Amino acid sequence: MSRFFSPRYSMLEAYTPGEQPKDMKYVKLNTNESPYPPSPLVTAMVEAESKRLNLYSDPESRELTAAVAELYNVGSGNVLMTNGSDEVLNFAFMAFCDDEKGMAFPAVSYGFYPVFAQLNRIPFREIPLRDDFSIDVDDYCGIGMNIVIANPNAPTGLALGLDDIEKIVSSNRDSVVIIDEAYIDFGAQSAVELTKKYDNLLVTQTFSKSRSLAGARLGFGIGSEELINDLNTIKYSTNPYNINRMTSAAGIAAVKDNGYYMANCKKIEATREYMSQELKKMGFAMTDSKSNFLFARSDRIGGEQYYLTLKSMGILVRHFSKPEIDDYVRITVGTREQADILLSATEKILGVN
Q1: DSSP code at position 222
Q2: Which residue, 6, 84, 187, 258, is the most exposed by fewest CB within 10 angstroms?
Q3: 17-36+259-350 has which CATH code?
Q4: Cα separation of the two ends of the chain
Q5: Domain extents for the chain?
Q6: Do domains 17-36+259-350 and 40-256 have the same CATH topology?
Q7: Separation between Cα atoms, residue 312 and residue 310, nearest integer Å
Q8: How far are the Cα atoms of 18, 47, 238, 267, 334 from residue 30, in angstroms, in the given order?
């Protein structure tokens, strides 16, 4: 770092994105992108909007906000559109936390949570998972802190039911509970309806996974109008034109073509089940994932070795060095063809006939 870098950030451990190597062509199963392209309507609307890039985007994202609000049966005042769900999460850390009111989250979860806390100089508490990687709901009840939980969790893929989420939210009425639903469309239950009952619940989602727009950077939050107003205060103090014209057009088109994307989610769920069963035949153990990835381990090969060997064969998966999970790899569920490539490579690695 330079001699000008502020000491207050000297201990910051930045988030590490999934690798994007360019040294060869890979089967890319490491960053949980959709294997399916955006719908033709998205491409057409983005192309049309590209001709108006000389003009600022709408800072209120009114048409996009209205489309998302209608899709989720909430009011426009209950929705905030953001530059990926990372932005709404960061806004929430900024808006609702301070020296006295910190944030609690699972010790094994999305790696950006501790980064947001450190970046904003917020006290935080990492709560261990159970031995089976599930979340113990009682650990979060009445704890006197704001809470963020990925549901389904990452990288485990395990999901909480709505009763458990409501138990957490209802026992922390003086704190904000954020449910990060980046992977919700692959088999879990959304908590959006609970935002109508609890003014302390914020649900965040992204267009990156189920709607094939990882490269467009689009996310949103749904909550009470008061929570959304708080987040808008942060937005208009940092980045009022946070959604560019082409991304907004892509989002509107994706909502219009929602059936296309939900059908793709069903394909991914079917491929997930196929991959899971085939890996189990080879001795792998894995969690009951409700996301677009598998979290798997084998007694015959360590997680890091499996990841490195696959990489040498042109297949990328994700390995984490945390001691609790370093035996595991996270494998994005792609197409059936990509699944077969991974499975064939795994058979060769393990010497399976």
Answers
A1: E
A2: 6
A3: 3.90.1150.10
A4: 51
A5: 17-36+259-350, 40-256
A6: no
A7: 5
A8: 6, 29, 31, 18, 10
A 10 A CB-CB count for 86 gives 21
In angstroms, the CA 62 to CA 65 distance is 5
Could you count the other beta carbons within 10 Å of the beta carbon of residue 6? 8
Q: Copy the structure tokens of residue 337.
A: 């063809």
* pTM, to two decimals: 0.96
Sign of CA dihedral 111, 114, 118, 121: positive
The pLDDT confidence band at residue 161, using thresholds 50, 70 and 90, is very high
Q: Which residue has the tokens 């070795």?
A: 305
Over 80: is that where the pLDDT of 353 sits? no
How confident is the model over 295-344, as pLDDT tens digits? Answer: 999 999 999 999 999 999 999 999 999 999 999 999 999 999 999 999 99
Contact between 329 and 309 under an 8 Å Cβ cutoff? The reply is no
Torsion of the alpha carbons at 40, 213, 162 and 328, rounded to the nearest 10: 120
In the numeric block, the tokens 């996974």 are attached to: 209
What pairing do the DSSP bridges indicate for beta strands 315-316 and 27-28? parallel
The hierarchical CATH code for the domain 40-256 is 3.40.640.10
